[in-house]
Write a structure and sequence with these properties.
The complex is a heterodimer. By secondary structure, chain A is an all-alpha fold. Chain A contains eight helices and no strands. In chain A, α1 (5-44) packs antiparallel against α6 (129-159). Chain B has one domain (2-214): Orthogonal Bundle (MetI-like fold), CATH 1.10.3720. Classes of the chains: A mainly alpha, B mainly alpha. Chain B: It holds the Pfam family BPD_transp_1.
Chain lengths: 216, 219
């Protein structure tokens, strides 16, 4: 079995389209997980047990069950409930929802790590609640959570191939279609594997730099 | 859903999932300790190789790695991996890379004086690792390993895309048979949740015992 550069060349146009889909899922999925995660985090810190308990139960359940099964759940069950989304939309929602339960933990830890004295000082200055959050707590929490959020974006990137399972045309699915066409598995799959390293490694270096700059 | 579907597909599927978890966790542990300890090695070459390993295997998606091992390695090497073993290999190698970071962090967290004392007693590097560093580092690693095991359990679902008959694959077949997706997928999610609960409970018990041996108390 020899390496065939022409197979690589044949795959590249389709690969480029797949890369765009992957990045699109990544950006939208990140946005969903960042915002929804903040909602969960607020729930996890809620004053009433009636809020805290259900939010804890739901996020723990979503976090400890496989994304792939959740993906199939949404893809097959939503239409039964009369909600029809495209595979791409379903996949993006599933990734965003799954990772929101991780970002929720990150936000919660970040907010908890702000020293209690900061809360007390804000209260002593009789700042209103929204000013306490926007001017005192969140600016300090964001520095702590940014690197961890970055790590989850990288984790999300590595989970985007699961969307091939519901035939979203991202990188892996393009490679599968290409190999099914030409019976050459080596080149397309290797191109996709290398692409992941080429994106994930610089990204993780970036997150590490961010961590050094912001946290310490 | 009929009894037959449970007995013929879902229950054996759960068993396959548990087997996958155990085998790939064992392989992952070997990789994690091997690579993690290599990252503290004196030789720069060994350290570089170990670092390269973790960066590569943490960089590639586990599913892509699984497809690669299943479709690319056979023509390269001239032999075919059974899907189950391609899956175990992919899961063990990639989650082992995450575990290597845990091992490295755990070893780095042992107070430097312990290492110096071991050197002063002229223990060999291997004795130092085995008698001084690991016994103190391992209990500290257990909570991270617990999280990794849950991630690995979730990762086993990927094998259903290679056609390995785990519980996710069983869900797919049952859906085709009954046309009722909500019921089977809810059941399977609950099954994973219960398995994960089993993992976290046993790891917590293990951690408590390991720390008790060092005279520490887990909250």
């Amino acid at each position: 079995m020899t390496w065939d550069w022409s197979a690589v060349a044949d795959f590249l146009p389709s690969f480029a389209d797949g890369l765009l889909v992957t990045l699109q899922v990544l950006v939208l999925g990140s946005l969903i997980s960042f915002t929804l995660g903040l909602v969960w985090a607020a729930g996890l810190r809620g004053r009433s047990r009636l809020v805290r308990w259900p939010v804890t139960a739901v996020t723990d359940f979503v976090r400890t069950t496989p994304l792939l099964v959740q993906l199939f759940f949404l893809y097959f069950v939503l239409p039964e409930w009369g909600v029809q989304f495209s595979a791409l939309t379903t996949g993006t929602l599933a990734i965003g929802l799954h990772y929101s339960t991780y970002t929720a933990q990150v936000y919660k830890a970040g907010i908890d790590a702000v020293p209690a004295g900061q809360w007390e000082a804000a209260r002593a200055l009789s700042l209103p609640a929204h000013r306490t959050w926007s001017a005192v707590i969140l600016p300090q929490a964001v520095r702590r959570v940014a690197p961890a959020l970055g790590n989850y974006v990288i984790a999300m990137l590595k989970d985007t191939p699961l969307l091939a399972g519901i035939s979203v045309l991202e990188m892996l699915q393009r490679a599968r279609l290409e190999s099914a066409d030409t019976f050459q598995y080596t080149e397309p799959l290797t191109v996709v594997g290398v692409a992941f390293i080429l994106i994930a490694y610089p990204a993780s270096l970036l997150v590490r730099t961010l961590e050094r700059r912001l946290v310490h | 859903m009929t009894m037959g579907l449970w007995q013929n597909w879902v229950l054996p599927g759960i068993w396959v999932t548990v087997q996958l978890l155990v085998y790939s966790a064992l392989l992952g542990a070997v990789v994690a300790f091997g690579v993690g300890m290599a990252r503290t090695h004196r030789s720069r070459l060994v350290r570089f190789a170990a670092t390269a390993y973790t960066e590569i295997f943490r960089g590639v998606s586990a599913l892509v790695l699984m497809f690669w091992l299943f479709f690319v390695v056979p023509p390269l090497l001239g032999w075919q991996l059974v899907p189950m073993w391609a899956a175990v290999l992919a899961l063990g190698l990639s989650y082992g890379a995450y575990g290597a970071e845990v091992v490295r962090g755990g070893l780095a967290a042992v107070p430097p004086a312990q290492r110096e004392a071991a050197v002063a007693l002229s223990l060999t590097p291997w004795q130092r690792m085995r008698l001084v560093l690991l016994p103190q580092a391992v209990p500290e690693m257990l909570p991270s390993f617990c999280n990794l095991l849950v991630e690995l359990l979730k990762g086993t679902a990927l094998v259903s895309l290679l056609g390995v008959g785990d519980v996710s694959f069983a869900a797919y077949l049952v859906r085709l048979a009954t046309q009722d997706s909500a019921q089977i997928y809810t059941a399977v999610l609950v099954i994973y949740f219960v398995l994960a609960l089993g993992v976290t409970r046993s790891m917590k018990a293990l951690e408590r015992r390991a720390k008790a041996n060092l005279g520490m108390v887990v909250k």
